[in-house]
Structure formats: C-alpha cells, structure tokens
Design brief:
By secondary structure, the chain is mainly α. 79% of the residues lie in helices and 0% in strands. Helix 13 runs antiparallel to helix 21 (372-396).
C-alpha cells in the first residue's frame, strides 16, 4: 500500500501544481506553501543515505571473505556480474539521451535546480576518490569517497580470521537492519514530502514535467528490452545453448514473483528450482550464483540509474562533461552491486551518481512517485540476469570450478 500512497502524493502534488500553473491563486499558494515538507523529506533521506550505503557495501564485500578462496567458480561469477553491469549503465544512458529528443523543453526554477558545482578533471577525479579523512568526507557528504573507503576496509576485513571478520559483518548487518527500519519510517512520510516537492516544481514547470516523466518511464522499459536482447540472449545462446523462448518459459514463475513483488530475494526459492529443473543448471553453481546474485547483482537497476542520471540532468539543465560521465558510471557501478533491499532502492541509492554530475538530490523525490512501474520491470530484469549468470557460469566454470571450491 505504501507505493500507492507515494504515487497518490505525487499525483496530488502534480495536480495542485498544474492548477496553480493554470492560474488558480489558491492552488498556487498551497503548492508553494508545501515546500518545507519537501525540504524536510530530502533532509531525512540525506540523513540515512550515508550510513546505509556504507553498511550495505561493507556487508556485501566483507561477506565474500578472502578473494583467493573464491576459486574458479566464484571468480567467474564476479567477473560476469561486474562485466555485464557496465554495458547496462551505458545502454541506460544512451537510450535516455536518444529519448530526450521527444521530451519537451523545460526551464527549471532556480530554487530547485541551482548551479552545478565545478567538476574536477579526470586525473583530479581519480585522485579524489581516496579520502584523506573519511570522517571529513562523511561530514561533507562525499558519498563516492566513502564508498571507495568502505569497499577497501571491507576487503581488508575479509582477510581476517573468521571469528574477527564475522564480528564486523554482524555489526554491519545489524546496523543495516536498523537503518532499513529507519528508511521505512521515512518512506511513510514520503506522500507528504513528495507532495511538497512535486507541487511547487509543477506549479512552475506545468505540463512539461508530466510529458518528461512519461518519456523517462518508456525509455527505461525500452532500454531494459534492448539490454536483454543485446547482452543476455546472445550469451545464453552462445555459451549456454539456450534460446530466448526456452529461457523465458523456464523462468516464468520466478519472473512473475519478481515482477509483482519488485524483489528478487522473494523469488529466490522458485528461482533455484526453475534454474536447476528447467534450465539444467548444476546444483553447486545454482546454490552459489543465485543467492549471491540476489544480494549483489542488479543490472536492471544499474540501467535504470544510468538513465535516471541523464534524465534528471536534463530536467535540471545540468550539463554532463566527459569527466562527470566517468564519475557517474563509476558511482552507479559500485552502488548497483550492493543496492539495499528497501522499496525503490534503485532511486534511494542514486545520490552518489547525482552528486558526481552536480544534479540536485531533490530529483530523487520526482522519481520516487513514479518508481513502481520501472521498479517492476527492472526487478524482473535483475532476476533474469541472475539466472543468466548461473547458466553462463555453469558452462564457463562447470564442475571443475565446483570441485575446486570443495577442496
């Protein structure tokens, strides 16, 4: 029901803003007076994003343990995960850039868009990924630096003795659980907060915002279809010997669950059964790749985030130079592998990528209200990608990889 309330908040905010833009003094006053609720909601999101992203990244990386112990099977799995996420981000950005030609021209209000901060060059950007003071980076909200620091710390923790590593992982998981609970509390205020963000923006932008959001949703769905056809289907055919019809028929049950619940974790039991029984994935491979994929592999979310960065930059009239594109791709790549299991997590974790290109975080609220539709499609693609990974890894690594892990 929460997604319905969030969508209702967006629709009411857009409706009030459109009436205000049409000349109604009453609705214009209501729209502009609701702005503090929107600012409070954004502050609440900012409050929880930094610790939540750090806790989830730490847990995901540290749980891998010593990378040398992953063996051929684990290494092949991670190679597939990382290698297939990058084209998803690029396709998302490319499709959205093409779709923007169908979006109306919008002049963002100065109070919402602001001026984009000066962006460093490529060398300065790479050097700046290493924070000289992680605590100062947290204070300044430098999420990308914090992600790099957390990933390095988690990798170091993964090399510790099992009992020491587990204590750190248990703490990070408990912290993550508490922060997720806090996110739920914040999301229950989202309808009012989104109204306070959408109403004043729409009052100044009018029908152009509605048309742009429709273009965004259609472009994301088209981009997901292009990605499946260009990446997953050829890999399945060439490496796994499985055609698109057999693959889709063999994953229909799990895909239906992922589509309706927007959760690949909820579909995991059915995913394991269908991958083994209908697609012939060996049990050792399925039992490793599919749970690991459900926790860290979300190529559909990465595509959505790449498209969202381009769309919000267009909406707020923020130019994206080449150095900033690299930063956005890197930020999206890192957070897409460890997206937190919360509603609309693909939107909630966009902050590092938006920060890399200088897009205001208030754009997150615009996407939250319409996120249910793209979330269903990208969750389904996430699941199909996880099963594709199991099929490909089973044929690449095979029983030899499973045997090496057992030794």
């Amino acid at each position: 029901m929460l997604h319905i309330a969030i969508a209702a908040g967006l629709m009411l905010g857009i409706g009030a803003g459109l009436l205000g833009a049409a000349g109604s003094e009453l609705f214009l006053t209501v729209s502009m007076a609701s702005e503090p609720f929107g600012r409070a909601f954004i502050s609440a999101i900012r409050m929880v994003i930094i610790p939540l992203v750090m806790a989830v990244v730490f847990t995901g990386v540290a749980n891998l343990g010593d990378p040398r112990k992953l063996g051929r099977l684990g290494g092949t799995t991670l190679l597939f995960f990382w290698g297939s996420v990058l084209p998803a981000i690029v396709i998302g950005m490319g499709v959205m850039w093409a779709a923007l030609s169908f979006a109306p021209a919008i002049t963002p209000p100065e109070a919402v868009a602001g001026d984009a901060p000066a962006l460093p060059g490529i060398v300065d950007f790479l050097v700046g990924l290493i924070p000289s003071n992680p605590f100062a980076a947290a204070t300044e909200g430098a999420l990308l630096q914090l992600i790099v620091f957390t990933a390095l710390l988690a990798a170091a923790a993964g090399t510790l003795e099992a009992h020491a590593r587990q204590r750190l992982v248990d703490f990070a998981e408990a912290l993550s659980d508490a922060l997720i609970k806090l996110v739920w509390w914040i999301l229950w205020t989202a309808p009012l907060g989104i109204f306070g963000l959408a109403a004043p923006v729409t009052a100044q932008l009018g029908w152009g915002l509605i048309q742009s959001l429709a273009v965004f949703v259609v472009a994301v769905v088209v981009g997901l279809a292009v990605y499946i056809s260009a990446v997953y289907f050829p890999l399945l055919r060439i490496v796994g010997g499985i055609g698109p019809v057999r693959f889709l028929a063999g994953t229909f049950g799990a895909a239906s669950i992922a589509f309706s619940t927007t959760s690949t974790a909820a579909a995991l039991p059915v995913t394991l059964e269908e991958a083994k029984r209908k697609l012939g994935v060996s049990e050792p491979v399925a039992d490793l790749v599919l749970p690991l994929g459900a926790s860290m592999y979300r190529a559909g979310s990465a595509l959505f985030q790449g498209a969202a960065v381009v769309f919000l930059a267009h909406l707020f009239d923020v130019s994206i130079p080449p150095a900033a594109v690299g930063g956005a791709i890197l930020a999206t790549f890192m957070v897409s592998l460890t997206v937190a299991p919360v509603p609309s997590s693909g939107v909630m974790t966009l902050a590092p990528a938006l920060d890399a290109v200088g897009v205001p975080l208030s754009g997150l609220s615009i996407l939250l209200g319409i996120d249910r539709i793209p979330d269903m499609f990208r969750s389904t693609v996430n699941l199909l990608g996880q099963i594709t990974a199991a099929v490909v890894v089973d044929n690449w690594a095979g029983e030899a990889g499973a045997a090496s892990d057992d030794e």
